[in-house]
Design a protein that fits this description.
The chain is mainly alpha-helical. The chain has one domain: Arc Repressor Mutant, subunit A. The protein is built from 3 helices and 2 strands, in the order E-E-H-H-H. A two-stranded antiparallel sheet has the order 1-2. Strand 1 and strand 2 form a beta hairpin. The protein is elongated.
């Protein structure tokens, strides 16, 4: 599913970046994508996706 329609950024891309780079916030994702730089409506959904990725990462590590 697309999280950021303005830039075509999907939840899968956000999760992949979060997993690969250990990112746990939107600021970290914005180092690799222009997420939220246009209208900003995607920020809330992006935070939820990042939280999911973080929980999944910790479950895998346990």
């Amino acid at each position: 599913m697309y999280v950021c329609l303005c830039h075509g950024i999907s939840d899968k891309k956000i999760m992949k970046l979060a997993d690969q780079h250990g990112i746990s916030d939107v600021r970290g994702i914005r180092q690799f994508t222009p997420l939220g730089s246009q209208c900003g409506k995607c920020i809330r959904q992006a935070k939820e996706v990042i939280e999911q990725a973080t929980v999944t990462r910790y479950k895998k590590a346990s």
